[in-house]
Amino acid sequence: MMIELxxxxxxxxxxxxxxxxxxxxxxxLIGPSGSGKTMFLMAxxxxxxxxxxxxxxxxxxxxxxxxxxxNLPIEKRRIGVVFQDNLLFPHLSVRExxxxxxxxxxxxxxxxxxxxxxxxxxLGLLLDRGVELLSGGEARRVAVGRAILTSPCLLLLDEPLTxxxxxxxxxxxxYLLRIKSELSIPIVYVSHNYSDISAIADSVALINVETDSxxxxxxxxxxxxxxxxxxxxxxxxxxxxxxxxxxxxxIVATDPHAGYSVxxxxxxxxxxxxxxxxxxxxxxxxxxxxxxxxxxxELPKMSSRNVWTxxxxxxxxxxxxxxxxxxxxxxxxxxxTTEAVRELGLEPEKTVHAIVKAKSLRSVxxxxxxx
Length: 371
What we know:
By secondary structure, the chain is α+β, with helices and mostly antiparallel strands. The chain contains nine helices and 21 strands. The longest helix is centred in the middle third of the chain and has 17 residues, at 166-182. The strands form three sheets. An eleven-stranded mixed beta sheet has the order 6-5-4-1-2-11-10-3-9-8-7, with helices on both faces. A five-stranded antiparallel beta sheet has the order 14-13-12-15-21. A hairpin with a 2-residue loop joins β1 and β2 (14-22). The chain has helices at residues 37-45, 74-77, 94-104, 114-121, 136-148, 166-182, 194-200, 231-235, 338-344; strands at residues 3-11, 14-22, 26-30, 52-57, 61-65, 70-71, 79-82, 154-158, 187-191, 203-211, 217-225, 244-255, 260-265, 268-272, 282-288, 293-295, 306-317, 322-327, 331-336, 351-356, 362-365.
């Protein structure tokens, strides 16, 4: 799937120029609040008409072309949208909200069945509930499910993790990663949070904002590349915050008395805080970059269960710190000071040990009750 965008929106003293070409499954867009991210999505969905330009999706045709006089209405674009406030219908039950888009979709265009999406998002026990009784995380899952059940050619997500506490944020992120893994729906994901974007996006574009002497604000969208490769550029646009690596895995052993469960991910075995789920349960493990300690040379005996050895791939210097990408069987990222880089002699290809306590790893298992 290829997204081809080259359009401009002018509203009073504000201009948004968007030029973007992507064939990735999840394309991220990151920028500060008020930069025009939501306006960007509304233009794709057909809610806002650009002043000029082109919006096209390979396989679905041209949605907007000012030169040819094309501007498909919302219902003809078959784009699923999930805004920050979910916009669930308050007078309908969860089941009725989910079926709304499904029933509005022509039978020949339906590619997904409600039962499939209910299972994917663990919505089965919520179907007869009123939406006013849903938690924040449950409402977000219902909104995502409703959008997916239109069998969209493109799914637009507007800050889907914003406003959720850490536990709910991890859980919703895990469901989004499951959607990415199990469904072929291309996604445009916008956020002001680098950590959220880097956990799911295959490529990222940045919105740069300039204000001239006449108080005219001009936002420009420019594609840059993989989120791991643009940290320094992203820091110029938004606050980087905590950097995370999210790894899908399977619980292979649990020993509450020992204080940890063992999760086997792709190329990496991890000890995490104990989980009562049985071995064989699928989960996602989140590793914060600033929870990782790096060591070089001979490794002393230590209490930490997670000690992984690998090589440094890249070191990126930010304003106040350094982000180090290393391959320990799975690529992870650590954050260290410039002084530590110098004292440890850290450089690409150098062998290092990555150390992190089990209790510092966050794991999310699908199907657990939300609080």
